[in-house]
């Protein structure tokens, strides 16, 4: 990738200056488009050509570097509003065939904020060359969070967001974050209010965003997970729930699952998952899970490499689908249960559905909220206890459960502190404190 030098220069006005090679072709059409759409979040740009370089000068007079602006005390709502503006700019760029990579989104020092207009300003590189990569949105968001001084009003939401950032940074594809992913991270995972289409339209001079029913969700916890179909749980006939209690709506059929990003549930960084691994279908009032000749198999209600793989099986509410070893609980929305239970086997299926809901192998109880967190597979991680792992070790006919501190600054088990990098055996009924929040671990019989 070609390099671009970025610095602040002071002349009659203050500019954020990007210097690129002289031979690189500038798109005058893109340059004019950017300047016409400053209200969308682009910084106005002037183009100068010297004997050795193309200079792109973005006007930032009377604006503040975002890295400095977020150091003031921000409410949680205001903080996520800044991220929403980034998402909407990315969406607008995508709708108008502007290359994501040419958005200068790697460091909050190079993004500006107009305090008077309450608008973010982002530089865009209007070049025809694809050799430039100026955007790594996850890295940008992680740095922004490091700079920010936030008054947190909902610790659960903020914890999920931080877990998402940490998890996404660990993946090799950490820069692959689209506006759809970011929209559903805010809207579906964090349930941050993003405004109605009419409100957004009023803010943006009559422009409405793309239909959000075709947006995507980024998994916040255990893997690089994308749900392309979107949609609210209340409006769908069924949904999947992962081991971290995230819910993914199934609102059309066939519902595809696989490693490719265009699947409805895309596990894009899982090498054990095939490009198109499995589909969920709905036929004559019954749901089915069907394996699509995957390399490592699909399993139902029990995972083991030598157990029976699914070819095509009926699904009952509460069944656990294993995409190889990744568990998802299939649940039929209560309003739609009658569409699943049909024929003479109705009573039997209702009984099976009721029994299948208890197929977790263990669970945690948050003693403060009494919320029950199911554990379907070991090792177990989730957003509520980010930085720790609950695992199982087998020895012939015996097994032991442990809790391991990976990156948690405050963890104690039965009154004893557990340092980072250490683990401690636990048992059913064992109590532990996670950042002062009491949990109890229970193992199913």
Automatic annotation (TrEMBL):
InterPro entries: Cell_Proc_Reg/RNA_Proc, DUF6382, FHA_dom, SMAD_FHA_dom_sf. Residues 255-302 form the FHA domain. Pfam families: DUF6382, FHA. This is FHA domain protein. It comes from Ruminococcus flavefaciens.
């Amino acid at each position: 990738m070609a390099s671009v030098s970025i610095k602040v220069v002071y002349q009659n006005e203050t500019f954020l200056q990007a210097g690129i090679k002289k031979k690189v072709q500038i798109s005058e059409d893109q340059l004019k488009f950017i300047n016409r759409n400053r209200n969308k979040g682009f910084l106005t740009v002037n183009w100068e050509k010297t004997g050795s370089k193309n200079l792109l000068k973005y006007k930032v007079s009377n604006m503040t570097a975002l890295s400095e602006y977020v150091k003031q005390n921000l409410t949680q709502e205001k903080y996520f509003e800044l991220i929403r503006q980034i998402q909407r700019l990315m969406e607008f760029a995508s709708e108008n065939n502007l290359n994501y990579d040419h958005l200068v989104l790697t460091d909050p020092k190079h993004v500006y904020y107009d305090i008077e207009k309450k608008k973010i300003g982002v530089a865009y590189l209007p070049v025809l060359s694809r050799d430039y990569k100026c955007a790594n949105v996850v890295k940008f968001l992680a740095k922004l969070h490091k700079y920010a001084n936030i008054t947190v009003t909902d610790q659960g939401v903020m914890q999920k967001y931080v877990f998402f950032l940490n998890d996404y940074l660990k993946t090799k594809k950490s820069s692959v974050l689209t506006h759809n992913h970011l929209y559903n991270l805010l809207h579906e995972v964090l349930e941050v209010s993003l405004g109605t289409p009419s409100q957004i339209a009023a803010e943006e001079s009559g422009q409405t965003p793309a239909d959000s029913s075709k947006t995507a969700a980024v998994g916040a916890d255990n893997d690089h997970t994308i749900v392309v179909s979107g949609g609210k749980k209340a409006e769908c006939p069924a949904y999947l729930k992962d081991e971290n209690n995230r819910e993914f709506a199934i609102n059309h059929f066939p519902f595809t699952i696989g490693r490719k990003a265009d699947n409805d549930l895309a596990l894009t960084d899982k090498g054990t998952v095939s490009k198109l691994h499995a589909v969920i279908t709905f036929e004559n009032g019954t749901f089915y899970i069907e394996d699509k000749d995957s390399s490592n198999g699909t399993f139902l209600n029990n995972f083991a490499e030598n157990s029976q793989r699914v070819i095509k099986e009926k699904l009952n509410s509460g069944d656990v689908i294993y995409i190889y070893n990744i568990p998802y609980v299939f649940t039929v929305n209560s309003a739609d249960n009658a569409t699943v239970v049909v024929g003479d086997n109705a009573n039997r299926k209702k009984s099976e559905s009721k029994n299948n809901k208890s197929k977790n192998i263990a669970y945690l109880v948050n003693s403060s909220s009494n919320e029950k967190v199911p554990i379907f597979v070991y090792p177990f991680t989730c957003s509520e206890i980010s930085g720790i792992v609950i695992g199982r070790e087998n020895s012939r006919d015996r097994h032991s459960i442990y809790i391991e501190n990976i990156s948690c600054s405050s963890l104690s088990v039965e009154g004893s502190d557990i340092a980072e990098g250490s683990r401690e055996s636990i048992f059913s009924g064992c109590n532990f404190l996670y950042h002062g929040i009491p949990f109890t671990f229970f193992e199913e019989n």
